[in-house]
Every structure is written in C-alpha cells, then in structure tokens.
Write a structure and sequence with these properties.
238 residues, alpha+beta, eleven-stranded antiparallel beta sheet, two-stranded antiparallel ribbon, 11% helix, globular
Amino acid sequence: MVTLACAIAALAGCDKLRKKHEPDPEPVASNEPPKSGHSVTHLKEDAAVATGSSTTHVTPATGGSASTAGAGSGSAEHLVGGDGSPAHRGDDGRLHGPGGAVFMGRGVTCDAAHDHCLRDGVWFSVSNIQPGKLYRALPVFEFEKKWWSWRGEPDEPVKLYKTQIAGNARIAPGTSVIWFSNENTGPKWADSEYEALTSSRWEAGVVERQDSPTVVEIQGFGPTPLDTIRLITETRAP
C-alpha cells in the first residue's frame, strides 16, 4: 500500500509539472485599426498606388507601396490636419504634402464637422465643370511648381479649385460645387485622413436647385446631402 501511494503521488507530481510548463495561451490580437482603402465611382478611373505607413502616420511616396507597421490611435489632432509643415521631400526622397505625413489608420469620421479631413494646402484638380455633367475632382497639392496627388503621383491639372464646407448655406441654382459622393452602399464618410485625401468619390458638378435645408439637387447626379458639399472659394489656372 505504501508503494502504491508513492506511485500515485509521483504521478500527481508529474501532472503538476506538465501543467506548470505548458505554454501560455497566445495573446489576443491587438486592436489595430485596419487600413482604409478608397471607393471608386462608376464614372471615374482611379489610380491604385498605395503608400508606406508608420506607427501613427503614413508617408506618401511616389510610386511606393503600402507597408503597414501598425496604425495605432490617438487624439483627433494627431489623426487629421498634419503638423503645419510645407510640402517637402524627406531625406529618403519621398514626397510629403502640406502638413507632412498622412495618417492612414482609421481615425475620426471625415464629416463636415472635421472639414472632411482635408488640409489647408488641398486643391481640387478638375478637367472642367459644366451643367448637367459630372467630373472627377482629385485632391492635389503644389510642390516645386508642379502638382501632385496625395498618393505622391504627378498630376497635370486643367483647372484648380480651392474649397470650404458649405455649412448651412443656401446654394443658388447654377453654382459649381465639389462633393463627397455616396452613390454606393458603403459608408457615407471616409474614416481616415488618407482615404479622404485619395478617394475617387470626390465629384464636381453644378447645382440644379435646393428644395430642402439639408439636401441639394445636383444636375446629372440627383439629391445630395448638403453636409457633403464644398463651395468653391478660389479658382486657379495651373
């Protein structure tokens, strides 16, 4: 009996030892926000060149590719607007638009309250604006007397427009506007600064009428929420 008791005790000790050295459960994946892509309208073609990223920002690079090392999170001022620096090239030759690196991870909702997540140096490159027709509006910036998209690609604009949110304005028929379209089943707004600055959902057209305080009819497009619309404040020839 003594021998059997010892054997049982030894087995119990081995079982405790095995449990003690079993590997710990794998940690739950981090809550890293996914990269935000951009939507494509059926009217426009959209370049699909991604850019590099860092822990809190992405560095647009001409002809670069995406390489996400983690998007992280932070206060709204770190997710939109940049750092106030002018457009420049970094030591590695990569091009940065006004405000420096662009935040690529999911951040604030890019609604009118956040100025659609656009920056002070953003212009829209549009081939033309005519009544009854729709045009792609490409966010661009100027650097060394040339124009660039926020993907770091060169652009040859025909017309350039500076804008501001429409707010609660009553927009007269015949007014040229730029807006963030929502003609698909996706979210109404971009959810990152990078998406807002590179999305193909920016459109340009002419207002037909405004029958509601919150909805505007755009020629050739239809009803459009007022809070998605930007008014043109300045026109510039390239």
